[in-house]
Design a protein that fits this description.
Methylamine Dehydrogenase, Chain H; 13 helices; 34 strands; coiled coil; alpha+beta; nucleus; five-stranded antiparallel sheet; repeat; Nucleolar protein 10; 688 residues
């Protein structure tokens, strides 16, 4: 699947990739798919969706189930069933098809206009009837209310063929010398035809009279357009009851309101090629116009470009699948293109998996590579002397750098470094010399990291190779050549620290194991040399010797491990002494502590007491609280324990309580003195 983007509109080409020839067998096709990645990754939405040489017209049935296309060579029509995603039938014809029309909802009624003035009718089973018109036809339209076919061509007359009566009716006489295209409005059935003189004539089929005339050739010429010759009408399409789009042979598209003789908007393709097809997209109010080189989608109100597509081959016809974002084209190539544009609408129901596929592609976007442009950073521009181009049209800002034309980059690089070719030549010569050196006998070079470990592995591999040669065993893979362990000999972070505690404790064991392995290898070599592998007594002797040696080895390495531990302890003591000396030599600076509000500073002893108290067990703390009187533990009648706590009060609360206590005492003394005075006065009155 090929993805392109213009104006932030993603277009997925579902027919991109190589196609396999028809004459290949299924077995060869499967073999090619296994070998070729491009063939395996392609998406074949509809099987065999192509023509032998060229496809000229493509249409969709009204029910949306069938896609019909005509092409050459030989002249033929192919019908594809979308529900089966494959070809339903193929019919060959006598002459090439100019255009065709599907009269029924499915493929059961088809009319073909052929080059040899023939009109051929097909039914569901195949060819039904064939007739001929007086002049060469170029286009025709079907009038549903009266069952009339209107043919236009190399004549001033419009031929009418009634399918209900099965005969030709009186033709319509026009002022044009020739007519190229025609269309019937689907709402009020107005018949319009485009002439070679660049005019559009509108006829009423009920009265068979002309009701309007538009001079599109004069309206298509604006101040910005440059045309050669008189533009003729090459495409015509109605939209609703009032709108009509007209395409000219010089590459302009005119949008008309039938109530006005002046176009609402004129859109130029700027290629000077005849407009082949015009389609309306109602969801986004777009007009899809196509010439043989490009397909343009633009807003019908403003004329602003929405997006465009330029296929590899020339375009003959464009078909928009109804109510979806799928677009199909007939090309000057065997393969018919299928495009999916999610912005225009969802995928058709018969290929709804495209929505999930495109969503996954958007979640995992692939990096875009531009062949004609070079990505450079600001530093690269400064080295090339092109920093003054920042902000100009020659550089396009992108992420942390810029895109510039590859030709400009090469020129600037040649001017900045004229001896680049000489350096390139020297580098190539150096590479050739190194390739020849690689064929010579090479010495084993030790890596920069873990040299001792690498040397040990090399020696062990050499010993194992000798044994495997004698026993004719397969060699095991080398750790030095294994990519999984390559970083261990390249990255300095993996360097073995021989001064670490773990290494010093394990080193005696590792060294003893390696020595034991070497002894065992020597014993095996001696046994093989003497040819005593199958005898039992020597094996028993060897095992006894090995067991005695292993017990001695175990005692030896245990002692070494103990010695290493003693050394480690001594080193730790030395380090502690050095730290104490450093602490004594260092001058202590005063530290300041913040006291919370409502607290008073007493001394640092309180904090020390608290720390000591926290270190004690819960039982000791409870006993201490009982002594201080803040805790009272008593037995209950049930047999359980009851503990009563008294919360400690802060200094501020204690002062407040003392002040309240003094205040109460003062009030009591005042009351007593007042009551004493009253009693004395009362006694004085009695005596008086």
């Amino acid at each position: 699947m090929q993805v392109s983007s213009l104006n932030e509109v993603k277009i997925y080409s579902l027919s991109a990739g190589r196609s396999l020839p028809e004459w290949l067998s299924d077995r060869k096709k499967r073999a090619l798919q296994k070998k070729d990645v491009d063939i395996r990754r392609r998406i074949e939405l509809i099987q065999d969706f192509e023509m032998p040489t060229v496809s000229t017209k493509i249409k969709v049935s009204r029910d949306g189930q069938y896609i019909m296309a005509v092409g050459t060579y030989k002249p033929r029509v192919r019908c594809y069933d979308t529900y089966q995603l494959s070809q339903k039938f193929e019919r060959c014809l006598d002459s090439e098809v100019v255009t065709f029309e599907i009269l029924s909802d499915d493929y059961s009624k088809i009319v073909f206009l052929q080059c040899g003035r023939f009109v051929e009718f097909h039914s569901q089973h195949g060819h039904y009837y064939k007739t001929r018109i007086p002049k060469f036809g170029r286009d025709f339209s079907y009038h549903y209310p009266s069952c009339d076919l209107y043919f236009v061509g190399a004549s001033s007359e419009v031929y009418r063929l009634n399918l209900e009566q099965g005969r030709f009716l009186n033709s319509l006489q026009t002022e044009a010398s020739e007519s190229n295209v025609c269309d019937i409005n689907p709402v009020h059935f107005l018949f319009a035809m485009g002439t070679a003189e660049g005019k559009v004539e509108c006829w009423d089929p009920r009265t068979r009279n002309r009701v309007g005339l538009l001079d599109c050739a004069l309206s298509s010429v604006t101040a910005d357009t440059e045309i050669e010759g008189l533009p003729s009408i090459s495409a015509l399409k109605f939209d609703g009851a009032l709108n009509m789009a007209v395409g000219t042979s010089t590459g302009q598209v005119l949008l008309y309101d039938l109530r006005s003789s002046n176009p609402l908007i004129v859109k130029d393709h700027h290629y000077g090629l005849p407009i082949k097809s015009i389609q309306f997209q109602h969801q986004l109010d777009l007009i899809i116009s196509a010439d043989s080189r490009i397909i343009k989608m633009w807003n019908k109100d403003t004329g602003k470009i929405f997006t465009s597509m330029e296929p590899e081959h020339d375009i003959n016809d464009v078909c928009l699948y109804p109510n979806s974002g799928m677009l199909m084209t007939a090309n000057e190539a065997p393969k018919m293109n299928i495009y999916y544009i999610p912005v225009l609408g969802p995928a058709p129901k018969w290929c709804s998996f495209l929505d999930n596929l495109t969503e996954e592609l958007e979640e995992n976007p692939e990096s875009t590579v531009y062949d004609d442009y070079k990505f450079v950073t600001r530093k690269d521009l400064e080295n090339l002397g092109l920093a003054h181009l920042i902000g100009s049209s020659l550089l396009r800002a992108y992420m942390h750098g810029f895109f510039m034309d590859i030709r400009l980059y090469h020129k600037a690089k040649m001017m900045a470094n004229p001896f680049a070719y000489e350096e390139y030549r020297r580098e190539k010569i150096r590479q050739k010399i190194e390739e020849t050196r690689a064929q010579r006998v090479q010495l084993k070079k030790l890596p920069k990291v873990n040299k001792e470990l690498a040397l040990k592995l090399i020696e062990e591999e050499g010993e194992e190779q000798q044994i495997s040669r004698k026993r004719k065993h397969k060699n095991l893979p080398s750790l030095l050549k294994d990519d999984r362990f390559k970083v261990m000999f390249e990255n300095p972070d993996f360097q073995v620290d021989e001064q670490s505690e773990e290494f010093r404790l394990l080193n005696p064991l590792v060294s003893k194991i390696s020595e034991k392995r070497k002894r065992k290898l020597k014993v095996l070599e001696e046994l093989e040399a003497q040819g005593q592998e199958e005898e039992e007594e020597p094996e028993g002797k060897a095992s006894d010797a090995e067991s005695s040696e292993s017990s001695d080895d175990e005692k030896g390495w245990v002692e070494e491990v103990r010695n290493q531990r003693k050394l480690l302890r001594q080193e730790e003591k030395l380090k502690r002494q050095e730290r104490l000396k450093e602490d004594q030599q260092t001058l202590l600076k005063p530290q300041f502590f913040e006291i919370k509000e409502g607290e008073e500073f007493r001394s640092f002893k309180d904090s020390a007491k608290k720390q000591k108290l926290m270190k004690k067990t819960l039982e000791d703390r409870l006993k201490l609280e009982e002594k201080l009187g803040t805790l009272n533990v008593s037995d209950t009648t049930v047999g359980s324990k009851q503990a009563t706590f008294k919360l400690k009060k802060s200094e501020q609360q204690r002062k407040q309580q003392e002040a309240e206590k003094r205040h109460r005492q003062e009030r009591k003394t005042l009351r007593r003195s007042a009551s004493h005075l009253k009693s004395r006065r009362g006694r004085g009155r009695l005596f008086n």
